[in-house]
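Bumping with the actual sequence this time:
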Amino acid sequence: MATPMTRKGAEQLKQELHRLKTIERPAVIQAIAEARAQGDLSENAEYDAARDRQGFIEGRIADIEGKLSTAQIIDPSELQADGRVVFGATVELSDESSGEEIIYQIVGDDEADLKLGLISINSPIARALIGKESGDVAQVTAPGGVRHYEILAVHYK
């Protein structure tokens, strides 16, 4: 199954993968070697911590490689969606109850960061926005209750 991901998100994962393989993995291997050199491994906290860290690093490497192998990379600037909200689109919204204007870009799960205005394609608000266009009102059922957002504009950048 393909995993949608923006070009920027794929680049970030590739950078993390490179860092894990070229910096983190060699450092933890060195730490394990140093801990082994200290002798008795049965009561060696440094050895246990380094092995745990190695397991985490190897798991993360496998996770990233798996995601990148199934990634469907989408460049938002190349989208032809006729003003509809789709994966990768940047959406300007107005909260109908507060009048607050918000800007979100719909991205993959690994890229989502609400503080940066990046929301997951699987979030309730993204699901409510998909397929709508400027002027439409999206009804979002959130933990705090039902919210209504008017779509002010849709951009592909």
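The tokens above came from a reply further down the thread. The helical segments are 7-37, 45-69, 124-129.
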